[in-house]
Specification:
- The radius of gyration is 23 Å and the shape is globular.
- The relative contact order is 0.11.
- The two termini are 16 Å apart.
- The model has no long low-confidence stretch (mean pLDDT 88).
- The longest helix is centred in the middle third of the chain and has 31 residues.
- The chain is built from 19 helices and no strands.
- With 456 residues, it is mainly alpha-helical.
- It is 70% helix and 0% strand.
Length: 456
């Protein structure tokens, strides 16, 4: 059940109406059943996987509290079971393909949102192990924490201390922040249906014919995919955050205009914040963080990026993507940060250029495609856009660039305070969102395209 589908809108209206009509003591039970049904709509069998992994984590926490001397054992029971599920369902084909003589046919489909809900559940168990919480939750409360339908499929990965107290707090219909919720949903749907899905009609053909492109066209394809994936995923987060507000739930901030960053370090402080901080808190710090020698710190940083790349997908291309970010992050730390003038005046260009090139590894389906893409950049320098322009007519390209400029202009006005624009922004704010709704109906892609991060 996709956010950008009619059936989801019907589902949301039904859940919202019944939720607020019920007595407060029954609301969370209904919200849990609705969330489980929402997930079951993708595949009923994977609902059992969600319930089983959550039950194991809940049991592990209870045993930690009951038998403190064996906390580490139950921690590894939780981590091991979650990693086993990830390995079987997400990385099974990858590991089997490491053996050239393998005859086993891998047919399992990756459960939607598997990486997100396992990370959220694992983070909870690790925090209890670290004595951050003394949870007193029932199994149904924990299941609701893991499966709350707005965020469970593609994040944000919400921490226990942020979400669980809100789920237990009695709230009232009159407290719903209608304006904030509706604006977030409209902006999220606009980014997804108007910008991301329409850009895909250029990006997909470009990567399907990557060997035909020259250097400039390849970089443009990478840049357009950078905008597409940002609008797609941040659009999902905006919609999820807006929907949660209809139930008086505030989800954590997941995006802070990352494409306006002046360095890779700043980029990862703004991009996909909930997952970035998860890797920082539960992987990087567990390996020693920066409390180690310089040599060990370099290894910790590099491994964190490589593992986070592998988390995104079971393909060597994602490992290469993570390695590229790890290497450039370290180069930036040891060398580029000394040249403050460079980052001040050229940082955004450098960041967008590197991000666009690195995303070639994120988007290419195979190593051979990625090899062709990098080969284009190195050897095929020519001033021509004939191949990439041929994928769509000129009017389509006009609208594509118009929307790219639009998204950057909106984020620039949010990033910086332009005093002379404030009166106009206040006066025309409602009209702006009405215009977005009109543009969604005129230019939006209503074919219910899946969100890109559903595959992760």
């Amino acid at each position: 059940m996709l956010f950008n589908s009619i059936i989801f809108i019907v589902f949301l209206i039904f859940v919202f109406t019944i939720y607020w009509a019920l007595p407060s003591k029954y609301r969370n039970y209904f919200l849990l059943l609705s969330s489980l049904y929402f997930y079951a709509c993708f595949n009923w069998w994977y609902l059992f996987l969600l319930i089983i992994t959550s039950a194991v984590d809940f049991y592990a926490v209870r045993m930690m509290l009951k038998i403190p001397d064996k906390k580490k054992l139950f921690l590894w029971v939780s981590i091991g079971s979650n990693l086993l599920v990830l390995s079987l369902f997400k990385y099974g084909a990858f590991f089997l393909n490491l053996f050239p003589d393998n005859q086993i046919q891998y047919t399992w489909v990756i459960p939607v949102g598997l990486s997100f809900y396992t990370f959220q559940s694992m983070g909870y168990v690790i925090d209890v192990y670290r004595n951050k919480y003394l949870p007193k939750d029932s199994i149904y409360e924990f299941l609701l924490y893991v499966s709350f339908f707005p965020h469970m499929v593609a994040g944000p990965v919400v921490r226990y201390y942020s979400l669980m107290p809100q789920l237990k707090l009695q709230t009232f219909f009159k407290n719903i922040p209608w304006q904030a919720a509706i604006k977030l949903c409209i902006w999220g749907y606009f980014k997804k249906m108007v910008i991301a899905d329409n850009l895909d009609l250029i990006v997909s053909p470009a990567f399907q014919h990557i060997q035909e492109l020259n250097a400039i066209e390849t970089i443009i394809a990478g840049f357009m995919f950078a905008v597409q994936v940002y609008c797609d995923f941040s659009g999902y987060s905006d919609i999820a955050t807006g929907i949660a507000k209809f139930f008086n739930i505030n989800l954590s901030l997941n995006w802070l205009r990352p494409l306006l960053s002046k360095s890779l370090k700043e980029f990862w402080q703004r991009n996909h914040i909930s997952v970035t901080t998860w890797f920082r808190d539960y992987l990087y710090i567990s390996m020693g963080g920066n409390r180690v020698s310089t040599q060990r710190w370099v290894i910790n940083i590099f491994l964190t990026f490589v593992i986070s790349g592998f988390w995104h997908g079971a393909n060597w291309t994602f490992i290469i993507w993570g390695a590229m970010h790890g290497i450039i992050f370290l180069i930036e730390h040891f060398y580029l940060e000394k040249f403050t003038w460079f980052l001040k005046y050229f940082g955004r260009i450098y960041l967008l250029l590197f991000h666009s090139i690195s995303l070639l590894a994120f988007r290419c389906q195979s190593g051979s495609d990625l090899k062709n893409a990098f080969s284009n950049i190195i050897f095929k320098w020519q001033v021509s856009l004939a191949h990439i322009i041929a994928f769509k007519d000129h009017i389509y390209w006009f609208f594509a660039w118009m929307f790219i400029i639009f998204i950057f202009m909106k984020e620039v006005t949010e990033e910086y305070s332009f005093k002379y624009l404030e009166p106009a922004k206040t006066r025309f704010r409602e009209a702006f969102y009405i215009l977005l709704v009109i543009l969604i109906f005129i230019l939006g892609n209503f074919h219910a395209q899946p969100f890109i991060y559903f595959q992760f």
